[in-house]
Hints:
Layout: H1 6-52, H2 64-81
Amino acid sequence: xxxLSIWHWIVVVVVVLLLFGRGKISELMGDMAQGIKAFKxxxxxxxxxxxxxxxxxxxxxxxxxxxxxxxxxxxKKFEGTA
Length: 82
């Protein structure tokens, strides 16, 4: 009773095809493939950006002091409203 026979799988496939149609399923698979390609491209761009920096050199942050001040002010505002 726990295993599904070939007839169960055929019924499931027929129901899925009736609900979504062949065109919709192929569109979904194409969209998924494009998403995977975009993800891989983004990951490779991140790797090349990291490789452009010199080894041992820390990454530079622009206006790090002002970011900390803004974060502290934001924290004070939230603490005051709570």
